[in-house]
Amino acid sequence: MDGIARDLFPSLEDHPYFNTCSIGPLSTPVRNEVNSYLEQWYEKGGIAWVQEGGWNDKVEEARSLFADLIGASKEHIAFSFGNSVAFSSILSAINLTSGSNIIYNDLDFPAIPAGVMAQNQRGIDYRVVNSTNNEVDVDHYTDVIDENTILLTASEVASNTGSRINPKRLVEISQEHNIPVFLDTYQSTGVIPMDVKKTEIDFLASGCLKWLIGGFGISFLYIRDDHIENLDPSSIGWMGVDDPFADLFDKLRTNLHRPRDATKFQYGTPYPVGAASAAAGMKIVKDIGIERIFNQDMKITQLIIEEADKRGMEVQTPRDPDSRGSIVNVKVENAANVVQTLQNEGYVLDMRSHGLRIAPHFYNNSQDVYKLFERVSQLI
Ligand SMILES: Cc1ncc(COP(=O)(O)O)c(C=O)c1O
Questions:
Q1: In tens digits, what is the pLDDT along the chain, a chain of 380 residues?
Q2: d(CA 166, CA 141)
Q3: Residues lining ligand 1, judged by CB closer than 6 Å?
Q4: How far is the CA of 219 from the centre of ligand 1 (A)?
Q5: How far apart are alpha carbons 20 and 210 in whole angstroms?
Q6: 210 C-alpha vs ligand 1 centroid, how far in Å?
Q7: Which helix (H) or strand (E) holds 315?
């Protein structure tokens, strides 16, 4: 199996790359965008915000590209600074009355549970749905939902094991109980096709540095129409108001005019180099197409599972392609030493849950996988 668009990632030949779940490798278009940002900063300073194709335009382009990738329109997307921040703005908008509770599951990335548990000091409780054999059956959310539940949350794909939940089913459950869902898609946007309209998800957030291969500094929050209309976040910044530049700020000091779109969930000044690199990364993903990427990533992860099976290694990731993302966790003896040696030799991968966390993306090829497993076999 050949990698797709592999020539855009020159580092891959010297550094077998299996760590996209942490950060995607640097592509030439993203590198060029970052360099051009530095040039603009040097040559134009603050004028770079407003010039055509400048920094403001990059933020808007990135919002549009993200919207496109999840089947939304730009009006439903707020830029943010990370999934923790995006989640905090949702928490600031929903009715957090003392005695209510929020539900998450034990495979979720801590960004969301941390935000939930911190609400404890305001009298908000939390309930945790447990996984079985590294899988979360979202039907188990119904075991802990009660009349005080105000929000269901989940990571679509778990960062340690690559396990994937069924968001459509979670939304069905939430609708039966009239409770909204916040979905963290940081480990799935860019791999797993998503149509927010068909899924009817309430809130969704992802950053761009992993499967969208766009680097640091910006993330995006999707908010469904009815929530845009009905919710007013209490935690915002000056980019969360209608026309932030109105009358050179004077009106803003005495009147809060909320926008009628998702930008009402925004905070302050975006990080322009993050927007520019995110846009360049998302353009690559969009040009290849999510369906094609999904098929490729499922094939390469299947190959990883087969190579692990051949050697009798324990796979800590669900085998069903409907139940996993593009991460395969393979348990080996002395995983920490194996990973350390591989890293010293130029491999880019990490360890989680006592296993090698192997996270390929569309640019990886079969040779990368064979080479990794041959070397791992020598090390254990
Ligand atoms: C599922 C998931 N959510 C969120 C994050 C990060 O959240 P934040 O943007 O707040 O750092 C990560 C990884 O870093 C992740 O894997």
A1: 999 999 999 999 999 999 999 999 999 999 999 999 999 999 999 999 999 999 999 999 999 999 999 999 999 999 999 999 999 999 999 999 999 999 999 999 999 999 999 999 999 999 999 999 999 999 999 999 999 999 999 999 999 999 999 999 999 999 999 999 999 999 999 999 999 999 999 999 999 999 999 999 999 999 999 999 999 999 999 999 998 887 656 766 778 889 999 999 999 999 999 999 999 999 999 999 999 999 999 999 999 999 999 999 999 999 999 999 999 999 999 999 999 999 999 999 999 999 999 999 999 999 999 999 999 999 99
A2: 12
A3: 82-84, 109, 111, 155, 159, 184, 186-187, 207, 219
A4: 10
A5: 5
A6: 9
A7: strand 314-315
Separation of CA 355 and ligand 1 centre (Å) = 20
In ligand 1, the atom with minimum distance to the C-alpha of 21 is 16
Mutate which of 91, 159, 163 for ligand 1? The one with the most ligand atoms within 8 Å of its CB, which is 159
Cα 205 to ligand 1 centre (Å) = 10
Could you tell me the distance, in angstroms and rounded to a whole number, from the CA of residue 187 to the centre of ligand 1? Answer: 8
Full-model pTM: 0.97
Contacts (Cβ under 8 Å, ≥6 apart) of 173 = 138, 139, 141, 142, 145, 152
Domains delineated in the chain: 6-26+289-379 (3.90.1150.10), 31-286 (3.40.640.10)
Query: In angstroms, what CA-CA distances link 145 with 90, 113, 166, 178?
Result: 19, 16, 17, 11
Q: Which residue CA neighbors atom 14 of ligand 1 most closely?
A: 22
Residue 37 is classified by DSSP as H
The amino acid sitting at 377 is S
Amino acid at 145: I
